[in-house]
Amino acid sequence: MSHTSDGDLVGAILRGERPQKYLWVEDIDQKKVPTVCRQCEDAPCVAVCPTGAMYQRDDTINICNLQQCIGCWMCALACPFGAIGRNEYEGKVVKCDRACLNEEGIPACVRACPTGALVFQTVEEFEAERRKEAVASLLK
Question: Please, which pLDDT band fits residue 17 given cuts at 50, 70 and 90?
Fold first, then answer.
């Protein structure tokens, strides 16, 4: 909902806005697995885009300029995470652009995730957490 005009479900429906999915959650072996853009540093989606619609901003966020997108889907084919989808209404690219960060820098999807399947961490934070878990399991 954070990508609608005012970020409100009821308001979006009343205005006739149809919210678009920006991430997908798959059910694999009874576990919820989110498919989200990892904002790759050396992004394959950016590298294969023939029009330059898919590009990396100075802050290393990979986004798509929909005015330049021709809907060829090269970016979706190149994405190793399956994190690029089709806009249901225009037939163009949909992917996380991190446009919905709050004051603390946490994306709306992470804040709203009811199961805790989505987390927002740097690689360094993730690595530190995994090391702590590994040490804790050795001490049991």
Answer: confident
- Minimal CA–CA distance to 7: which of 80, 86, 87, 112? 112
Dist CA 2 CA 100 (whole Å):
6
Helix (H) or strand (E) holding 128: helix 123-139
CB 85, CB 24: distance < 8 Å: yes
Residue 103: predicted pLDDT:
86
CA 93 to CA 53: how far, in whole Å? 10
H or E element that contains 24: strand 24-28
HSE-up of residue 102 (Cα within 13 Å, Cβ side): 10
Reference 51, options 39, 66, 31, 36; nearest CA is 66
